[in-house]
Design a protein that fits this description.
This protein is of the alpha/beta class. The chain has an eight-stranded parallel beta sheet, sandwiched between helices. The chain has 21 helices and 22 strands. The protein folds into four domains: about 1-215, P-loop containing nucleotide triphosphate hydrolases (Rossmann fold, 3-Layer(aba) Sandwich), CATH 3.40.50.300; about 225-375, P-loop containing nucleotide triphosphate hydrolases (Rossmann fold, 3-Layer(aba) Sandwich); about 380-440, no CATH class; about 450-570, RRM (RNA recognition motif) domain (Alpha-Beta Plaits). A hairpin with a 2-residue loop joins strand 19 and strand 20 (about 545). Helix 3 crosses helix 4 (about 90-100).
Length: about 575
């Protein structure tokens, strides 16, 4: 049965445990979303369900709340709920949601099993006994084969974002996990789309499922002025400062992709004279609340945040959202810029787009069904005009204060030296300014090298010729060689899935993949830490270690196979 629902009810009507209702009230939730109102009763009743809904519709709570209501109140040595998610980031988000919703359940135990994390800590948690496990397919399969995870008493298996797991090449792992679960285990499958392999999976493993479809609402608020700035990667920091200097704003959220980036950007803005601070997952909940209070109380003006910690943030003075790192899907974009322009207030949203991200901008416009207006780079002349006015305002403000001690000191100096009073004032201004240039220069914006511009202009729709040596990585990317090829049965999706989870990357930042008979090459962002590359060396794909290393462009074995040349990952 399929139902399109706009059910409006209260959480009290859904027969959830009192401890959960208390948590919901503390979190500020008022009414269930359509998918929550439709799915929760089915999960509570133990029925198999299929939920078709986009990210951001509240589907995590749709399965987490009823499962906590059933299994969270009592301690258990055996795993009762297993949630499979396509990426480490999503798995950690789901884990955090279970913990937040279940914070009034003292016996609750939840563990994340994700790639790129220590095995020992995961194994210790499993040995102590947990009710709920949230993990990525590859790491869950690993634990099952090691015998450190047992599913003998599993009551419910949740597949979150099933179509994304299919796209990333995890569907075989997912099916293998489902075969390990008891036959009478409840299954809840959530997917934004229903491609044929996912529908086939549902028909094979789900028993008379209840189906719920919720239409995606991707329209952005009309009160938000949306723009994008086309900027080369090397000029992004300079562009960020120029935008903040020339735009009028009250409070700002600046979105960055990683926790490390939030710290680096916050420090850069502080040095540039802005009141900025980072808000990321490394901060304890009490610290996060303290930072948000500082924004509300106007002690800081700019929060540099990741998507995870900014979820649900509502501060009335946020008048501008800056997407320093472009989001990888339209839903995330809508959620980000939704932090402003609320309750009829006007807001502004600016998206930084590099040459290699034009396709993602088009995807965002397609999903939101709205055009994003291009804005010009603020010129040095515009920046300097603002700096002149700000400097004059500082003088005016200082003149209104007590200047007696300074006045006498400068008067004494002027009488001793007979210096021009204006020259003395200028010298004091220079002392105050320090080594930081007073005025901006357009020379600070570095132009792309001629070779980069030529390659960008000449690059064909597929990103290069048939031979590996005929193309270079795009700007901001580095090419790596991995020791697994299509002689070993590897597919691009296998490589994408393994690297995305083990390196904690969104799969869409992984670039061109060429698969040769005995090895492959993959383009990855330049900013990936060396420690992450070291970790990836021992990751296994198609039964072989990646042994990843920077590609030196050698010809040994680099000739594509005769069955049609190298295989490439299709643009997604």
């Amino acid at each position: 049965m399929s139902e399109q629902t706009e059910v409006q009810s209260s959480f009290e009507d859904l027969a959830l445990a009192p401890a959960l209702l208390e948590s919901i009230q503390q979190l500020g939730y008022q009414t269930p979303s359509p998918i929550q109102a439709a799915i929760i009763p089915h999960v509570l009743a133990g029925k198999d369900v299929i939920g078709q809904a986009q990210t951001g519709t509240g589907k995590t709570a749709a399965f987490a709340l009823p499962l906590l209501s059933r299994f969270g109140a009592h301690a258990a040595q055996e795993v009762q709920v297993l949630v499979l998610a396509p990426t480490r980031e999503l798995a950690l988000q789901v884990t955090e949601s279970f913990e937040q919703y279940g914070k009034n359940m003292p016996m609750l135990s939840v563990v994340s099993l994700c790639g790129g994390m220590e095995y020992r800590q995961q194994i210790r948690a499993l040995r102590r006994g947990v009710q709920i496990v949230v993990g990525t397919p590859g790491r869950v399969v690993d634990h099952l084969k090691r015998g450190t995870l047992q599913l003998n008493h599993l009551q419910c298996l949740v597949l979150d974002e099933a179509d994304e797991m299919l796209r990333m090449g995890f569907i075989e792992d997912v099916e293998w996990v489902m075969e390990q679960a008891p036959e009478d285990c409840q299954v809840a499958l959530f997917s934004a789309t229903m491609p044929a392999p996912i529908r086939k999976l549902a028909q094979r493993y789900l028993q008379a499922p209840e189906e719920v479809t919720v239409a995606s609402k991707t329209a952005t608020a009309p009160a938000i002025h949306q723009r994008y700035l086309f900027v080369h990667q090397r000029n992004k920091l300079e562009a960020l400062v120029r935008v903040l200097e020339t735009e009028v704003f009250d409070g700002v959220i600046l979105f960055a992709r990683t926790k490390e980036s939030t710290l680096e950007l916050a420090e850069h803005l502080q040095r540039a004279g802005f009141r900025a601070t980072a808000l990321n997952g490394d901060l304890a909940q009490a610290q996060r609340e303290q930072v948000v209070d500082q924004l509300k109380e106007e002690r800081i003006d700019i929060l540099v945040a990741t998507d995870v910690v900014a979820r649900g943030l509502d501060v009335p003075r946020i008048s501008m959202v800056l997407n320093y790192d472009i989001p990888f899907d339209g839903e995330t974009y809508v959620h980000r810029i939704g932090r402003t322009g609320r309750a009829g207030r006007e807001g502004s949203a600016i998206l930084f787009v590099t040459p290699r991200e034009r396709r993602m901008l088009s995807s965002i416009e397609r999903v939101t069904r709205q055009r994003v207006e291009e804005m010009p780079m603020p010129t040095a002349e515009q920046v300097n005009a603002v700096r002149r006015e700000r400097f004059k305002e500082q003088i005016t403000k200082a003149l209104g204060g007590n200047l007696n001690d300074f006045y006498e000191l400068i008067k004494e100096y002027q009488e001793e030296t007979q210096a021009d009073p204006l020259a003395v004032a200028a010298a004091l201004a220079k002392v105050m300014q320090g080594n930081k240039p007073l005025f901006a220069s357009d020379d600070a914006l570095q132009r792309p090298a001629k070779r980069e511009r030529r390659e960008r202009n000449e690059r064909g729709p597929r990103g290069g010729g048939e031979r590996r040596g005929n193309s270079s990585p795009e700007a901001g990317m580095r090419r790596y060689r991995i020791e697994v090829g299509h002689a070993h049965g590897v597919k691009p999706s296998n490589i994408v899935g393994a690297i995305a989870n083990e390196a904690n990357l969104n799969s869409r930042v992984i670039g061109r993949i060429d698969i040769f008979p005995k090895f492959s090459t993959v383009d990855l962002p330049e900013e990936i830490p060396a420690a992450t590359i070291t970790h990836l060396q021992n990751v296994r794909v198609a039964g072989r270690q990646l042994e990843i290393a920077p590609d030196k462009g050698g010809r040994g074995g680099a000739r594509p196979s005769r069955q049609g040349g190298p295989r490439r990952r299709k643009a997604s």
